[in-house]
Amino acid sequence: MYARLRQLLRDELPVALVTIIDGPGVGGKLLITADGVAEGSLGHPELDRIATRDALAELEAGRSGIRHYGPEGQTTPEDLVGTPVVRAFIESWAPPPQMWIFGAVDFTAALGKVAKVLGYRVTVCDAREVFATRRRFPMADEVVVSWPTPLFERRGGTLTSRDAICILTHDPKFDVPAVQGALATSAGYIGVMGSRKTHSKRLERLAEVGVSQPEQLERLMSPIGLDLGARTPEETAVSICAEIIARRTGRMAPSLRDGHGPIHT
Amino acid sequence: MKELLDDIDRWQAAGTRVAVARVVDIEGSGPREPGAAMAVNEHGEVAGSVSGGCVEGAVVSEALAILAGDAPPRIVTFGYSDDEAFAVGLTCGGIIRLFIEPLDW
């Protein structure tokens, strides 16, 4: 089963592994792919069925955790009275989150590197063939020579709340369709580079093409990044990625030293 | 787990037995999420980590005992405030539970 798991992980396909970690049948395993097909057994068909259902839910959410069952798949407290408890660890591997970076500029290479450290699948997109090359962005999983609109039309639907879009071009010709495309997706983070002045000009151009609803514009993080005083492309990349984390966790991102309470919640 | 695959491949190709320790549960302030994993081979070589370096040494001993058949695959708990906890603590004060088993599946 490990060989199968290894292949699925290398191919970055979604998979969940259920392991009995305590109770009857310790070490028993069930491997579940996104289509709901299971391999292996936890020792009882009904237990396998229930664990498969739960594993698919965990996989959907990209979560891992412990579940308690009876040896025959019992789940309700009444049914569990007097039965030994099977503790199962459901570990799920969802495909990596995506970061789409628009604009093949100096900041792009630095942002791509930091994004890779954080586990993103990085796509760099620019319409200029001479700039959008693999040689300039070896850290990217993919370099796409294209205007933003066709890329969004083709694959914008794959972006979810886990994914990030960073628009670094500064060029209204490219920025405006990129922002339009980004706003039509469910991406969890949309950052747009440029000064406050650039941003207000961009808002005017967006209004010209009909993008002016406050709840839409509210999604744009522009100027992009946390206020770290970043100067270099690398520092800016850290400030952008830190902002992405803070937006996801809903934190204001002050220093831990100056706060109270537990670090992790 | 993903980051362990290459090391495990290398060890298994050399006919070396391997145990895997996975974080299955954390309470309070834990340094790594459930699913964080480390692999230990029968020579005590290590890949990956399951905490900020606080418990790795103890995990190696546990893994070697399990590989040697001196202990069954099981949950091992680390943390200072728990009765069942081992002597090794986490600097963050949390509790971390690992499931350690031979990679024979």
Please bin the fraction of helical residues of chain A. 25-40%
* Element pattern of chain A in H and E: HEEEHEHEEHEEHEHEHHEH
| Topology, number of strands of chain B | 5
Order of strands side by side in the largest beta sheet of chain A?
A: 8-7-6-9-10-11
Span between termini of chain B: 15 Å
Please report the total strand number of chain A as a whole number: 11
N to C succession of SSEs of chain B: HEEEHEE
Main attributes of the structure:
heterodimer; A: 265 residues; alpha/beta; six-stranded parallel beta sheet; 9 helices; 36% helix; elongated; B: 105 residues; alpha+beta; 5 strands; globular
Outline the secondary-structure elements.
The complex is a heterodimer of chains A (about 260) and B (about 100).
Chain A: H1 2-10, E1 15-22, E2 29-33, E3 38-41, H2 45-61, E4 65-69, H3 77-80, E5 86-93, E6 98-102, H4 106-117, E7 121-126, E8 142-145, H5 148-155, E9 164-167, H6 172-183, E10 189-192, H7 196-208, H8 214-217, E11 220-221, H9 233-249
Parallel strand pairs in A: 6-7, 6-9, 7-8, 9-10, 10-11
Antiparallel strand pairs in A: 1-2, 1-5, 2-3, 4-5
Chain B: H1 5-13, E1 18-27, E2 37-41, E3 46-48, H2 56-67, E4 74-78, E5 95-102
